[in-house]
Amino acid sequence: MKNEFKSLIVQGDKKFSLKNVKTDYTGGYTKQKAKDALINSKIEINHLQEKLYASATHSVLILFQAMDAAGKDSAIEHVMSGLNPQGCQVFSFKVPTSEEYQHDFLWRHYKALPERGRIGIHNRSHYENVLVCKVHPEYILSENIPGFADVKKIGKDFWKQRYQSIRNFEEHLTANGTVILKFFLNVSREEQKERFLERIDDPTKNWKFSSGDIKERALWDDYMKAYEEAINETSTENAPWHIIPADKKWFARLAISEIIEEKMKSLNLKFPILGEEEQGKLSESKMALLGE
C-alpha cells in the first residue's frame, strides 16, 4: 500500500480518536492527479476481480459506514464502476423489516454475504446496530431480546456483548476465506452542512435530502462518540477499520480504491491450473474444432 494511505488504518492496537484525524487530508494529491490514479487503480482491481472469480478461494466483503452526505453512494459508484457485475453484489441496508426483527441482528447481514469468488459491498452494515442503535437505544426494543424490554436495561454490558458478537462474526468470516474491508468516510460537520445546502438548492438533488437528516445532524457529537467506540472495539488485525478523509470526494475515492487494490494483491490470486486429464481434454477439443 502506498505510504499516504497506511496512516488511514486503525488496527485496534491503540486508542483511536476522530478528533486527531483530518477530514480534508489529500496526501499531496491534486484533484486531477487523484482522478488519473483512480483510473489506473480501477483497471488493476478489474484484473484482480477476474482472478478472484476464477480461483473461487476467497470472497471480499467491503463495508461502508458514514454520516449522511459523506459520499458513500458516490464512492461505490466511482470506485466499483470497473467491476464485472457478475462477480459483484451491492446491498444497501435500511430499517429492518418485521421478518428481520424476528431474528438476531446479524441474520440479515449473514444472508447478504458474498460467496467465494465474489465481491460484496454493504452500504451501511451490521455496524448500524452499534451506531444508530447506540444513539437511539429505543430501537433495540423492536428486537424483542429477552430481558431488554426497557431502554434502562440497555447498559454497558449490553454493548460489550454486541461488540463481542461482531468481533466473533468477523473472525469467523476471515477464518473461512472472507476478506473484510471496513471504511468509515470521515466527513466534517462543516462539509456536511455544505452538501445538505446543495441538496436543498439543487432541484435534481432534492430527493437526496430528508428533514430527518437535520434531526440526526443535531446528534453529531453522540454519533462521533458511537463511531469512536465501535472503531476501537472492533478494529482488529484481520478486520481493521480504514478511516477515509471524506471532505474531498476525489481523494476519498482514490484512497478506497488503492486500499482495495493493495489488499486483493496481497491474496496472490492466480488462475486455476488444469490437471493432466483436463489438459488432455482441451487438446482433444482443439483437434476436434480444427478438424471441422
TrEMBL record:
Domain Polyphosphate kinase-2-related intervals: 31-268
GO biological process: polyphosphate metabolic process
Annotated transmembrane regions: none
NCBIfam families from the UniProt entry: PPK2_rel_1
Gene Ontology MF terms in the entry: polyphosphate kinase activity
Organism: Pedobacter yonginense
Name of the protein described by the UniProt record: Polyphosphate--nucleotide phosphotransferase
InterPro entries (UniProt xref): P-loop_NTPase, Polyphosphate_phosphotransfera, PPK2-rel_1, PPK2-related
Pfam families membership: PPK2 (PF03976)
Keywords: Kinase, Transferase
UniProt KW Coiled coil keyword: no
Family recorded in the similarity comment: Belongs to the polyphosphate kinase 2 (PPK2) family. Class I subfamily.
